[in-house]
Design brief:
With 244 residues, the protein is α/β, with parallel strands linked by helices. Helices cover 22% and strands 25% of the residues. The longest helix has 18 residues.
């Protein structure tokens, strides 16, 4: 097997809590206590401010504002986004954050292509566009070549929140939702699966082997209490539609 990726689905989260989780995982990854790890979440409404935001442009829009160590300027996170935080120890030959940003863009572009939407890059900017509208924001940082922060893909987000300030330093109203361009299934499960698939392809990672459900208590038909869904199983056994 190649390098292993663990996937942590943490559901809805407060931004500050997910940021602390990332920092803990970075320290563990630096010590090789864990494999490369992808955190997938959906945040409660918040404005985050990266290192590139001028102090006089920090928005005051009636939401919590958190300054972070990631690159980029201010953006909004909230329900209706797929947020992915790769905690990856970049190997020799990939230790270039510009390349890393282009790789994350490629992940999103390939995800959009799966639903027949053409995602594009913009010269001199970071993120992914559909036509003249931006659908995905990306901001990252790294500690000793272990990455954290990541990308937020707008599936059905609150675009009014973006229009109250300059998202990523761009004109208000520049952001779009993927649901405005293609019909989407409810929730973000499909794009969780697609994000993992294309991250594995682009970064040459592999999920750990799925557990043999026949060996689990009750056998393969024992799926647990109605409505239960484990969220941190290392691989992706909770997603039966994950393409093998």
């Amino acid at each position: 097997m190649g390098r292993i990726i663990q996937v942590k689905q943490i559901g809805f989260s407060r931004y500050a809590e997910s940021r602390e989780l990332q920092k803990q995982l970075v320290e563990q990854r630096l010590k090789d206590e864990i494999d490369d790890t992808l955190v997938i979440t959906e945040h409660e409404a918040v404005i985050t401010v990266g290192r590139g935001t001028p102090k006089d442009e920090i928005p005051d829009v009636g939401l919590e504002v958190i300054e972070t160590e990631r690159g980029g300027e201010a953006t909004y996170h909230g329900p209706g986004q797929l947020v992915a935080y790769p905690i990856f120890k970049l190997p020799e030959g990939r230790r270039d954050l510009h390349r890393y940003l282009r790789d994350l863009e490629e992940v999103v572009i390939r995800c959009l292509a799966e639903v027949e939407v053409e995602g594009e890059r913009r010269e001199g900017l970071t993120g992914v566009w559909i036509g003249d509208k931006k659908v995905c924001s990306i901001g990252v940082t790294a500690k000793s070549w272990v990455t954290y922060h990541g990308f937020a893909l707008n599936l059905r987000s609150d675009l009014d929140a973006f229009a109250r300030f300059k998202p990523c330093g761009l004109a208000p109203g520049v952001m779009t939702n993927l649901c405005d361009h293609v019909e989407l299934p409810p929730g973000n499960l499909l794009f969780q699966v697609l994000a993992v698939k294309h991250i594995c392809e682009i970064f040459e990672l592999e999920l750990p082997p799925a557990p043999d459900l026949a060996d689990a208590p009750g056998g393969a038909c024992d799926s647990g209490p109605p409505g239960s869904q484990p969220t941190d199983l290392g691989g992706f056994p909770t997603l039966p539609i994950f393409p093998g």
